[in-house]
Amino acid sequence: MTNKDLAEVIFPDITTTIEDYEKMYPPRNLPEGAKVTRFAPSPTGFMHIGNMMSALIDYVVAHSSNGIFYLRNEDTDQMRSVEGSVEFIHHVLEHYDIMPDEYEYDNKIIGKYGPYIQSERMPIYHTFIKHLIEIGRAYPCFLTKEELDEIREYQQKSKKRIGIYGRYAKSRNLTIEEAIAKIKNGEPYVIRFKSEGDFSKKIAFEDLTQGKLEFPENDLDVPIMKSENKLPTYHFAHVVDDHLMHTTHVVRGSEWVSSIPLHYELFQAFGFKMPKYIHTSLILKKDEETGNIRKISKRKDPEALMFYYEEKGYPQIAVIDAVLTIANSNFEVWREQNPDKPFYEFPFSPKKMSASGALFDLDKLDNISKNYISKMSAQDLYHEYLSWAKKYEENVYNIISNHESDTINFLNIERLVKKPRKDYENYSSIFPKSWYMYDEAWKDNITYNFPQDVVKEEVINIMNTYLNSYYDPKDNQDEWFNKIKDLASSMDYATDMKEYKQNSKNYQGSIADFTGYMRVVLTTQSMTPNLYDIMQILGKDRMLKRLEIFKENY
Ligand code: GLU
User: Fold this and answer.
1) What is residue 228's predicted lDDT score, i.e. its pLDDT?
2) Which end is more exposed in the chain, N or C (fewer Cβ atoms within 10 Å of the end residue's Cβ)?
3) Pairing relation of β-strands 202-207 and 249-253?
4) DSSP tag of 28
5) 83 in any annotated domain
6) Which of 235, 263, 280 is the last residue of a domain?
7) How far is the CA of 186 from the centre of ligand 1 (A)?
8) Pocket mutation for ligand 1, best pick of 37, 256, 257, 276 (most atoms within 8 Å of C-beta)
9) Is the CB of 104 under 6 A from ligand 1?
10) What is the dihedral angle through the alpha carbons of 61, 65, 67, 73, rounded to the nearest 10 degrees?
11) 105 in a domain, yes or no?
12) CA distances from 153 to 146, 157, 162, 164 (A)
């Protein structure tokens, strides 16, 4: 009996060949130099910032070369699959407008190289596994869980390398007849790759990020097909898929670097050309408690998962820029020189990616984001803020949708100027800094944030006099300020700060104190955007109402 007979017993229904599939998926018709990348997450958890970095690099590398970026759902680990994670991946790609050129979702396949969901590619994998069995490079392994545990314990105790290789690969020694007899007898088995590697020899490998690497050859007989559902393992499936889908560049996390020798041998066993690899940096952060730099953690750090950025309401471009800033050391300079270019025109260079890890810092994101938000028009900002609130803060949504023009006018204060205000790092930070503009947000327990002690009657007097005898909604900012100065000096407040510094005892206070009182009565805050504009938005009646609230609450 031959290996062909064994392959026939294991896959009696498989009549296709590798050549058939190669004909079905011919090389892509792309211009010279075009790169084909794929984002290939496993739906075993929710999309995290490391995935985002890979997806962005995939997008940039493909789009800057007139290539193709596709999405592959690597769902072969069905035991660990997490409900909702596939939907979330799509949502994130859509939200950031980095949709792949080819993908499969919602019973729709876009692209000619699908299926793009691994569990739908079983006949393909089985064809390729059947071939490996026929050529003597894969075999059924009947080691039981107990036997495997025993081997591992022994290897751990005697400090040997862990895994099935050499004399531990017992099923290798079965004759074809014995193997077939066991299968016919119903004994469970996995299919293992039959390695021909020698651990004492070295392979050289060129990773585009990490440069020249050297590893011992693989000599492990890893499982390539599982027992119970006959699904392939990641190691095997990605080799087949990247070959048939004509991936030129694999962008993936650095946790896969140690699998390079195995993947190298798998590609070789088929005689396939290996794609190029860009292993992305580990994402690090400074631990708030210890101050130490450590790996970002999906369990401990909310910012590790992509939910965080949407819930907080960061503009998409700010998140993209923050991730690219840590992905490539020259991104920041490029962005300074090209503030208006789309991010995918950035000439990404794998060599400029840190091999030791990328330090992600939320303050940096906040700065990037403040900058973007400060440059948005008040209308655009309002609409982004509104759609964020609709999803995450119903109360805020109700208020700001009822006061569209006031909100836009408020957001517009000191906006269309050379150095616009940079108050907001995300949409969720707007309401806490603007609630006082909305009457319905004035609740009990008002705290008036006067910077110093004030005499209530004095403040009431100032406001009353101003509102009843000086205020005119038609005043422009200069007229408004002149009137305030007149009133201030008539009440013994210094209108010249220099003079006040020299002779402060001659005065009740300065013009800054004077406007400060007005500001606090009207907003409770000691610092706000330009008071004149706030007063323009509020109008006389609402200001009088706030004075009443002050009288009752201070
Ligand atoms: N499915 C693998 C993961 O989610 C992807 C690795 C790769 O991109 O090849 O980690």
Assistant:
1) 86
2) N
3) unpaired
4) P
5) no
6) 280
7) 33
8) 256
9) no
10) 0
11) no
12) 10, 6, 9, 13
Tell me the angle at which helices 511-523 and 477-490 cross, rounded to the nearest 10 degrees: 110
pLDDT value of residue 105: 96
At 366, which CATH number?
1.10.1160.10
Q: 506 with 528, same domain? A: yes
Q: Domain range for residue 295?
A: 289-373
Q: CA 349 → CA 61, 242, 284, 327, 354, distances in Å?
A: 9, 22, 20, 9, 11
Question: Do both 204 and 233 map to the same domain?
Answer: yes
Cα 278 to ligand 1 centroid, rounded to whole Å: 12
374 Cα–ligand 1 center, Å? 37
Q: Which amino acid is at 61?
A: V
Query: Best substitution site from 42, 48, 277, 298 to test ligand 1's pocket, by max atoms within 8 Å of Cβ?
Result: 42
Which tokens hold the place of 134? Answer: 């026929």
| Domain match, 213 and 341 both | no
Say if strands 190-193 and 138-141 run parallel, antiparallel, or are unpaired.
antiparallel
Q: Which of 325, 344, 373 is the C-terminal boundary of a domain?
A: 373
Of 100, 126, 125, 104, whose CA–CA distance to 114 is shortest?
104
Two tokens, residue 457: 């009657």
CA distances from 511 to 5, 264, 450, 502 (A): 97, 75, 15, 14
The span from the CA of 335 to the CA of 544, in Å, is 48
Within a domain: residue 200? Answer: yes
What amino acid is encoded at 273 in this protein? K
Query: How far apart, in whole angstroms, are the C-alpha atoms of residue 16 and residue 52?
Result: 37
Q: Taking a C-beta distance cutoff of 8 angstroms, is the pair 91, 46 a contact?
A: no
Ligand 1: nearest atom to the Cα of 38: 8
Please tell me whether residue 489 adopts helix, strand or coil conformation: helix
Count CB atoms within 10 A of the CB of residue 96. 21
Indicate if 345 and 265 belong to the same structural domain: no
Q: How far is CA 389 from CA 50, 92, 178, 353, 429, in A?
A: 27, 18, 67, 36, 11
Residues in the chain, total: 554
pLDDT at 516: 96
